[in-house]
Every structure is written in C-alpha cells, then in structure tokens.
Design goal:
Blueprint lengths: L1 E2 L5 E6 L4 E7 L8 E5 L7 E7 L5 E6 L23 H9 L5 H5 L10 H11 L12 H20 L41 E5 L2 E5 L10
Antiparallel strand pairs: 1-2, 2-6, 3-5, 4-5, 7-8
Helix pairs in contact: 1-4, 3-4
Bound molecules: zinc ion.
C-alpha cells in the first residue's frame, strides 16, 4: 500500500494474477498492457506504472484504519521478517486452532507473506507434513518452523524471488532466480535432496503440495 502524504487515505495495490508495479523513466515507451500511470511531484524523471495483462489486479483508494493500513487489509497479520512479528502470539494461535500447518501458513490473518511455494519449502526444511495438525505444536517446533520460513524468504529475496514466467518481476522489471534453489516445490518425482526418495505432489486446496514422503511423514489418521 502507498500512504498518501496528506490525508488519512492510502492507495492499495493488488497484483491479481499478472499485475506489475514498475518504476520507469517518464520517457520510456508505454507497455502494451499499461493500465495506470502515477506521476510524482518530485523531479526524478521516473513514474510508477501499473501494468496488467489480465485485469484481476488494480489500484484502489481506502481510508486508513488504526496503524495506518488501508481498512480493507487491516486484518492481515505482519509478515515474519517484520521485527514486530509476534512469535509467541503465532504459536498461541497454532495451539488454539483446529487446523493443519500448511493452512495456517497460508492464513494471512495469522502470518502474511508466505504463499504456496514458500510454505512447501519451509515445511520440507522442517520435515513437517503439510497436513499435520497445529494443536499439538510445541514451542520448539514452532520456533524451528518460523526459523525455516524466515530462512526461505531471505534466501528468495537475496536472488529476487521466484519467477516462473516473465510476469513475475520486481519494480525494475527483473526476474528472480530462486526457482533454481527450490528443494520441494515443482520437483515431483525428482530425488529429495536429503534422502533421495522421489518428491511427491498431491492436490491441495485447488493448488498442489510437494513433499518428501520419507522426511515428511503424514500424521496418523
Ligand atoms: Zn527426503
């Protein structure tokens, strides 16, 4: 979100499936799917462009809630790289929920910034099956998982994220290279890098879950 200098409102950006926010020189030719151009009062010669091949994304204006977030996203939790992320509160939420661990990692009211790919990677590093119930998590188990989540996110950020096609780019239009470092996601039938067992893929909530059936044993029914 982009706080406005004057007034209690913010611009909220949602990338949808294919949206891009690009910082481009004002003189650069328009992209084919340029939807919104934001000019600035300073004199850097750059502008912000919202480019979207499809139209599931967009920019919208919202009043700020407490904490300065646009009201419609005020329920979204901090991401685990935020210094104010509350590990103890996250652990308490896991213990108090009748849910499973991957659902919890993708539940943005508990933790944000973790999508399907990074959840699978963190679970592989933690040797946790995605269907493991969270109610039985011990404090050390939660701490180890959060450590792996943070390590995966930091490693991905270091190389610009995970770009599966040319739509996934940063504000300079550059792709990321973390796909080369994935241990679980997208590696169906390839050997687990820890034990050699072929990685499996299972349908999961209209997505897929990738896991090692030996390192990440399913919970007992
Ligand atoms: Zn394994």
């Amino acid at each position: 979100w982009l706080p406005l200098a004057d007034g209690p409102e913010s611009v909220l950006a949602h990338l949808g499936m294919s949206g891009q926010l690009l910082v481009r020189p004002e003189a650069a030719p328009d992209e084919k799917h340029l939807r919104i151009r934001v000019r600035f009062a300073d004199e850097t010669g750059t502008e912000l462009r919202f480019v979207d091949q499809r139209t599931f994304g967009g920019l919208s204006l919202h009043p700020n809630a407490a904490g300065g977030l646009p009201d419609v996203i005020a329920h979204i939790a901090r991401d685990p790289l935020d210094p104010e992320f509350d590990d103890a509160a996250f652990h308490a939420a896991l213990r108090g929920s009748r849910t499973t661990i991957k659902r919890a990692l993708l539940n943005q009211s508990l933790i944000s910034g973790v999508g399907n790919i990074y959840a699978d990677e963190a679970l592989w590093r933690s040797r946790l099956h995605y269907e493991r119930p969270t109610a039985g998590f011990t404090r050390p188990r939660t701490a180890e998982l959060l450590g792996h989540v943070r390590a995966v996110l930091n490693a991905a950020l270091d190389v610009g994220g995970t770009s599966f096609d040319s739509l996934y780019v940063n504000v300079n239009g550059e792709s990321g290279y973390f796909a080369r470092s994935l241990d679980a996601y997208g590696r169906e039938d390839e050997p687990c890098r820890r034990c050699g067992t072929p990685i499996r893929r299972r349908p999961w909530m209209n997505r897929s879950s990738y896991f090692c059936p030996r390192c990440q044993r399913p919970p007992r029914p």
